[in-house]
Amino acid sequence: MSIPVQGVSWHTQEVFKTLTTLAAGVVKSAFWFYFQLDGKMGLRSKGAIILVSAAIVLSSGQSGRAATNYLPAGKVSCDQLSELRTATKICVFTGVTDGGFAFHIGGDSKKKEDYAHISAKDNNLADVWNINCSVDMMNDRRTCMIQDGRVNFLFLYRGTKNITLCVRGQNYPGTVGLVRLDSAAPIQTSPRGCLNAQATARIIAKMRPGVVVRTRNYDWPESRPDDSETPLNSNFSEVFSLAEFLYRGGASTIPGLDGN
What we know:
nine-stranded antiparallel beta sheet
């Protein structure tokens, strides 16, 4: 079974963001002129300014809502798996991002768990990203884990303003991990291997195609440093777009993904 689904591209989202920013500036200017020209212009002219401002606010609000629904075009396919006496129907949504990277999305709606796998056509580990989202059974908090294909580091994603970068395997007592982008100065993690949200945001701002992420960790029971590196490619921005989509429960909105 295949169900085509058309989504909003990452590039379109960036246009939406730009238009929204411009709209806000136009609205502020409009009201500034309104008050500055008070008494110098007729009621009809003032009304025109208000109508134009309202139209811009409404259109920018619609664009903002569309921007959260990122999903490249693709289709749902299902397979019937028979294990012992039970039969399970597994469905995945597959497609290709604007950057040309293949991906598939799946999940378990009953457990509120979703995942995505993103890779280049040759499945090069440098181009592979895995996203796994789940809900904590104790506090109902939803978290998405974004992990690079070489399993060197990961991001804990709880919305666009709450992202934490962690170095894998950093757990030896009395040590800290390190993160370095290209030849920049290394940044120390906590003893558990994670950066705070502010430091993570600064690193993400510099993580663009061509940058190499270098990490160092100290894994128990060995006390010697374990170094690794991950080159970034052009699908990095699309990874976060898909993570935001899954974080907000977007997988549940894909027709047919639950097997029905």
